[in-house]
Amino acid sequence: MDTGATVTTTETKPAAVILGTWPDEPLRILADHMDNLLIWCVSKRASDVTIQTDRPIYIEVDGMLHPITRRALDSADLANILHHIYGPEALAKLASGRDLDLSFEVRPDRNTRIRFRVNITAILSRGRDSVQITMRSLPGLPPTMKDLGIEQKIVDNWSPKQGMVLVTGPTGSGKSTLLAAGCRMLIEREHGCGKMLTYEAPIEYVYDAIVGPRSLVAQSEIPRHLPTFAAGVRNALRRKPEIILVGEARDRETVSAAIEAGQTGHLVFSTVHTIGVAATIRRIVSVFEPSERTERSYAMIETLRMVVTQALVPKVGGGRIGLREFLVFDENVREIMLDQPIERWTAETQRLLVRYGQTMEQTANKAFKGGLIDRRTYLLLIKGFSGDDSGEEIKVEETEV
Q1: Is the dihedral of CA 2, 7, 8, 10 positive or negative?
Q2: How far is 60 from 112, CA to CA, in rounded Å?
Q3: Which residues contact 37 (CB under 8 A, 6 or more apart)?
Q4: Which is higher by pLDDT, 157 or 398?
Q5: Are residue 197 and residue 121 in the same domain, yes or no?
Q6: Which residue among 59, 63, 188, 212 is buried most deeply as judged by most CB within 10 Å?
């Protein structure tokens, strides 16, 4: 393509030269240096900070990694960082075979909070047990639906009186950000959202600064405040909320609890790690044991109100853009689904998506023709969503996700 020369020229420059390195890099990174480092990273528009034994510190800007320290970190550096971010028991928990999810915040002054979602995982580096820390920067306020360019049909159907709304996509596709924007919209509306309870692992966005006189939000972190998402839903049912947000519907117990909450007059939001609306239906059905699959699957369809799948892709000119596939499960769509045998739901969902919803292919086409994404991204999206097993029948013998 005619842009090839320009792309090649940009990519041949060392990343550190383009972005620069951390100007205050010390000979040894101590706990006291971490806040200063993270503030500098945010000033460079870093979406993620990755800290790993035997490697420099990397930040990700617009989807590209950049090294920002001149030297590789050793185990002593990592021990100091871990102690500051998590506490003295971090290494013992990692040694037990657990990864650690948490939120972390830096306060440059009394009125400013810079928040991060953190994952700490044990790895092997140069034959030794080591650590990788991934810190995702979170905005001080959740974005609005308008900021994210959310389709009007999604906005209009975001708040049914009761039932379940699912946001799906792979890791890093902006599911939590979309949920947070939706929560902000509900909190800020004229009649508020009533009592909203969220159960997250970890808490990413906070709503302290969102003004909503008729809204009351309480956020709980899993497993810090409650052991599991399923326990969170059971807890919520004893607290008379209007809205329940479950960070992830990852197992049979959580899905069943969310369905029960949706059936008893609550509005439930959750996420699922699937690619495509049809694949989401297939995944949820497959979590149920064969003995209960028919009953629970029909209950799920009766409860479901909307599924939105989001992909976050590079945008022409820099940055990233969210593209979405969605289907509103109104009364007509639910009736069509319930008239079909469970084994045909995946294929039927794909047909309904074309007729009543918006496919990722339609969204990608629009973005490509509008010059928002390049041809390579467009083709990758089409390939990714056409190969998600959407057309396959649900196998009745399947028992695990």
Answers
A1: positive
A2: 23
A3: 22, 24, 29, 49, 57
A4: 157
A5: no
A6: 59
Cα separation values, 201 from 17, 103, 137, 246, Å: 36, 9, 15, 9
The reply to whether 84 and 153 lie within a common domain is no
- Are the CB atoms for 54 and 72 separated by under 8 Å? yes
37-71 confidence digits (pLDDT tens): 999 999 998 999 999 999 999 999 988 899 999 99
> Which residues constitute the domain of residue 80?
4-138
Which of 107, 138, 169 is the last residue before a domain boundary?
Answer: 138
Q: What is the pLDDT of residue 251?
A: 86
Same domain for 354 and 263: yes
Q: State the pLDDT confidence band at 8, using cuts at 50, 70 and 90.
A: very low
Considering 109, 138, 167, which residue would you say is the last residue of a domain? 138
Does 98 share its domain with 196? no
Q: Kindly report the CATH number assigned to the domain that includes residue 66.
A: 3.30.450.90
User: What's the DSSP call for residue 317?
Assistant: T
- Work out the burial of residue 7: count CB atoms within 10 Å of its CB; fewer than 13 is exposed, 13-18 middle, 19 or more buried: exposed
pLDDT at 196: 96
Q: What pLDDT score does 18 carry? A: 54
